[in-house]
Design goal:
With 431 residues, the protein is an alpha/beta fold. It contains 19 helices and 13 strands. The strands form two sheets. The chain has a seven-stranded parallel sheet, with helices on both faces. Strands 3-2-1-4-5-6 form a six-stranded parallel sheet, with helices on both faces. Helix 6 crosses helix 7, helix 11 crosses helix 14 and helix 17 crosses helix 18.
């Protein structure tokens, strides 16, 4: 074993007794679920079902939600298997509770200490572990491998910065990548970086291209539509600090008076956004506080979880958050999934930073299903044209829908690649 991995294992063994205290501090900060915090130590109150179990892991909201199509395929095509999904954030757990298929188990992932990892694996005993994006935890991966768990790293995304960091420990990263039976990066650049680090790449799969339209509550849609009336609706989706007020101020220049919905990426920021809007005398309502929409409401703060599908359906035009940081002098975010509005046929506008979705954004831009602006100040010209010309907006939305439809096939490729790793069918279960 490489000296770096030996040092890591020794250090985590020495520091692991501090984990309960650190987790308690995170509970007080709202970063851990107080009822389920022991799961982070590998201790579960949930019973393991009998038979073979497949384990899917992603760290936060985007990664874990990208696993939903695979979880659904497993439950439908292999009902003889149990499915466990682990994640690392409270927000991801709350969303998964709403959207996981019936029978799929969710747990918080253990911290990467030897005892926590051992307790987790002792309890769940997975046959296959599927890690999404760049989740490479040395103790978890190497211990699982040592116990005979088949492992796959799928939809792997490795930035140049991440690759440079890993390259400082070449022996360690080679050993970790060798633990995977399948490595399926999400793009050619990630594949090249993984190969340079010693990984054996088995093809490309981007799970974030595999999902369908986001779900919504039809009754809530009807109620909000009636409250909004004939006013055009602009949705600023998945926004980050600094973007909301920049977008609000910019859209003041529109000749029409729209209903602007602000859906922050992290809904717990609702109070922060409300304070900023109050300071500048905007009329707004907050969904988390039961605020009603009426003709006097300029802005609706959609600070709730799991309702983006609802707000996308209400929108006439969507502004993609997480894409304006460079224009505002903030730390880049890389943008969010432009396929979410595209799958619903919604015209969308992004800022200059769509680096997390470069290939998808390029395809949408090329086909006329997405517009890009340099700064929030450029939004009124583009958004205004779309609101003034509904036929052009519909054509842009349909171009986006067609392009999104062409992005399919990812789940089938992943499913085919995983077949040799899945346990043999149990003759007595799920028939």
């Amino acid at each position: 074993m490489s000296p770096a991995l030996v040092a890591y294992q020794l250090l985590t063994r020495l520091l692991e007794p501090l984990a309960p205290r650190l987790l308690d501090a995170r509970v007080k900060q709202g970063k851990e679920d107080p009822v389920r915090v022991d799961e982070r130590l590998g201790l579960s109150g949930a019973l393991r079902p009998e038979g073979e179990l497949v384990w899917l892991h992603g760290v936060s909201v985007g990664e874990t939600l990208s696993l939903l199509p695979l979880a659904e395929r497993l439950t439908k095509s292999r009902p003889d298997l149990s499915v466990l999904v682990t994640s690392g954030t409270v927000t991801s757990a709350e969303l998964l509770a709403q959207r996981l298929p019936p029978g799929v188990i969710h747990q918080f992932a253990p911290v990467d200490g030897p005892q926590a990892v051992a307790a987790f694996l002792d309890h769940w005993r997975p046959s296959l572990g599927v890690f999404v994006e760049s989740e490479i935890w040395p103790n978890l991966i190497l211990t699982a491998r040592a116990r005979g768990v088949k492992l796959a790293l799928v939809s792997a995304r490795v930035t140049e910065r991440t690759a440079r960091g890993w390259a400082r420990f070449p022996g360690a990263i080679r050993r970790l990548l060798a633990a995977f039976d399948r490595i399926l990066p999400q793009d050619a650049a990630s594949a090249e970086r993984l190969q340079a680090l010693g990984g054996q790449v088995d093809g490309l799969v981007n799970l974030k291209l595999a999902g369908g339209p986001l779900p919504h509550d039809a009754k809530a849609f009807t109620g909000l539509s009636a409250a909004i009336g004939d006013r055009p609706v602009i949705l600023a989706a998945s926004t980050h600090p600094g973007e909301e007020m920049a977008i609000v101020r910019a859209l003041d220049a529109l000749s029409t008076r729209p209903c602007l919905i602000l859906a922050p990426r992290h809904p717990e920021r609702g109070a922060e956004i409300a304070t900023a809007l109050t300071a500048e005398n905007y009329r707004f309502a907050m969904r988390s506080r039961g605020g009603g929409l009426d003709n006097g409401t300029d802005i609706y703060v959609a600070d709730t979880l799991g309702e983006l599908g609802l707000f996308l359906r209400l929108a006439d035009v969507v502004i993609m958050g997480g894409s304006f940081a460079p224009a505002l002098g903030l730390t880049p975010v890389g943008g969010h999934n432009p396929l979410e509005p595209a799958r619903l046929g919604k015209p969308a506008v992004t800022g200059p930073d769509a680096s997390n979705w470069a290939s998808v954004s390029s395809a949408l831009l090329e086909q006329g299903g997405l517009a890009m602006v340099a700064t929030p100040g450029d939004l009124p010209a583009v958004v205004g044209r779309l609101l003034d010309n509904p036929a052009a907006a519909r054509a842009m939305g349909e171009a986006a829908r067609r392009t999104a439809g062409e992005a399919g096939g990812e789940l089938d490729r992943l499913w085919d690649s995983l077949q040799p790793l899945l346990p043999l069918r149990s003759p007595g279960r799920g028939r």
